[in-house]
Amino acid sequence: MLNMFSLEGKVAIVTGCNTGLGQGMALALAKAGAKVVGVNRTNPVETAELIKEAGGEFLNVMADVSSSETPSRVLDETIITFGRVDVLVNNAGIIRRNDAIDFTEKDWDDVMDVNLKSVFFLSQAFAKQVIKQGSSGSIVNIASMLSYQGGIRVPSYTASKSGILGLTRLLANEWAKDGINVNAIAPGYMATNNTEALRNDESRSAEILGRIPAGRWGEPDDVAGPVVFLSSDASRYVNGYTLAVDGGWLAR
Ligand code: NAD
């Protein structure tokens, strides 16, 4: 039974894995047997070390996901080094906070480019390669509670993450017939750089914590099991679904 969850022999790309949830997921995929390709703007020294310690193999492609030449370069370097690709985790993401009334075009475009546009074009390059290989594949997008809720002072983030939920469904509809499963994970409130400003704001932090049934902020390790499940044969008939990993936040 547990063999269904094994990623032995598979190659997984994870964007933005030098820290936070991306690091936790890259390590989890490596521990489940996958060779991991990171896509990062800075050298992910710690992630490389953790994967090595766990007995895994890791390649880093230094790239900005919002650049239009990144998808083809990531796929080329993956194939040159590991010869194939099976899993894509679209994790890289940024957030900008300001009142909607003052929100700038730059803060809109920067967030949409990293959080949504790059996800589409990297997924497209990945799907072309998987179809060429004649194999199956899994895409796991990283959504958010703001794929379901409006949020406050984060207009482009909410738009991008709501877009991820829809794009996950659209790509699943088109590519399920090609053996490519497209799903998403919607993390709740997790203790990473992304939420540092929120956690430093005493009243917002207490408000958030008070509504999480699990009674704690999530940790990168909490997405380990879900990402391995959605990358493995264990989820082969799961298509276009966004799985909340939120300590019960949405159930309130
Ligand atoms: P984080 O800031 O620690 O990680 C973000 C990662 O994306 C980093 O590795 C960063 O270097 C990378 N990145 C950003 N822009 C990039 C670019 N242009 N090119 C390449 N890499 C880039 O925060 P995190 O919480 O680990 O965020 C990971 C994902 O999870 C994001 O998509 C985020 O929106 C999402 N998320 C986080 C939470 C949370 O509570 N922390 C909740 C829901 C969703």
UniProtKB/TrEMBL annotation:
Protein name: 2-dehydro-3-deoxy-D-gluconate 5-dehydrogenase
Top EC class, one word: oxidoreductase
Catalytic reaction annotation: 2-dehydro-3-deoxy-D-gluconate + NAD(+) = 3-deoxy-D-glycero-2,5-hexodiulosonate + NADH + H(+)
Family statement: Belongs to the short-chain dehydrogenases/reductases (SDR) family.
GO molecular function, one term: 2-dehydro-3-deoxy-D-gluconate 5-dehydrogenase activity
Keywords: NAD, Oxidoreductase
NCBIfam families reported in the protein's UniProt record: kduD, PRK07231.1
Pfam families: adh_short_C2
SUPFAM superfamilies (alphabetical): NAD(P)-binding Rossmann-fold domains
Organism: Marinomonas balearica
Classification via InterPro entries: 2-deoxy-D-gluc_3_DH, NAD(P)-bd_dom_sf, Sc_DH/Rdtase_CS, SDR_fam
